[in-house]
Amino acid sequence: MNCLSLIWLIFLPVIAAIVIMFPEFSNHQVKVRRFAKWFAGFHFIYSLLFLAFFDSGLYGMSFEKELTFLGASWLKSLGISAKFAVDGIALLMVVLSTFVVFITLFMSKMHIRSKHKLYYSMVFLLESAILGTFCAKDMFVFFILWELTLIPLYFLVSQWGNSEARRAVMKFTVASFITNMFLFFGMLILYYYNFAISNVLTANIESLNMDETVFPLWFQISVFVSFFIGFVLRVMLVPFHNWYPDIQNKAATPVNILIAGLIPITGVYALIRFNMQLFPEIFKIFAPVLLVWGLVNIVYGAALSFVQYDIKKMISYANIVSLGFVTVGLACLNKTGFDGAVFNAVAGAIVFSALYCVISSVQFRTKTTCITALGGLGQVMPKCMYTALIICFGAIGVPFLIMFTPRLMILTGAMLSNLEQQLLVKVAAIIGLLVLVLSAGFIMYFFYKVFCSVLLDSWKKIKDLSVQETSILASLCLLIVYFGINPMSIIQIYRSVSSIILDVLQV
Description:
By secondary structure, the protein is mostly helical. It contains 19 helices and 2 strands. 71% of the residues lie in helices and 2% in strands.
């Protein structure tokens, strides 16, 4: 369809942000909020049209568009162009991102009480930058948009979080800047080395295929490690995970939903797009290391979840466990593990965004997220309890709910992996299975303590979910159930991409 343009999809949120910040635009919080919600709904529906007209069997990228300036490519003489396109994985992440922004804006009404124009404009700027990272075909354009996500994220956490939020997000921003310098260095040496051997200046990701007869092993390892360092914060591998529970504990709850739903999937996508696709031979060398690292994430995250007194931190460590499973799935080097890893990343974004929506409703009414101060809320908030039960069951991987299939695929992929370290992958699968049982423990402990224990006197007069909150949580529950019953509806979207990557890896 001619009306489907990735340029519009990516940059429409920027236009919305400019409209909101325009001095003539009403400063009335209700009008700002309604405009933001209606635009987010329209933008989500527009992204669904790309999914409806996407050919999942296409071997390559779709909907390619280039942002030109007066008819000319951006920095054409340097081989750098603002070209955008999507494959199955990128499109899935794009639609997921627009959905997360949509539900976030509906949950923002309760918690955002000041600086409404700044808040909603920052949300849209963050959305635009993240969509750009998923769609960029040029690695320098990717890097620019990857860096730009830090600016709105800083304001969203620091301006609407608690008194310690600014310190927490500043630590993350500085750490991101340091790791991104490694990423930029890797891109530069790849860009110039490719020019030295081909006499062609290009930053197009598809044109930078690593031929081991041309690119020596030491060079590939150096660039691979530089890229990996640039992505490790967002993949949240131990010990580069501390920023996540720290920020989630201090940020406003709607911002928790944004961070849980958007930031981890950017790291997973970048790891697949660059480390797996550009450096297949090096990825195979590092696969056992990633397998062990993912296993450490799973065990460490589960152990720390058990000792948390704040429900935001408990859910944050549960998300770190989920990303450990993603890493294990990618390291299996087979179709089952890879498909499970991508599915797990998508499912994790949905489930943990949903859990933070539950926390949002609870915190709004009780003004606390301390698990020992909560109890028995199911007696006064039955609608919240029943939707939370479905979401918690989804998070622990109950059959026919969204997390069951990806976890099963990852564990099966580990058992079937052809890695030389056969004992290692079998042990990883067994430990992962045991941790799944433990994760059910702390997730259900969260549910029991908040909703099913003795009702405290201070909570007897609080009200149940509003119509708007019920609609959002019910929609999330429907997704959790639907994708649990029909997992192939997700997997078939990126099936051609998994085939491409396995062909590149030659496994």
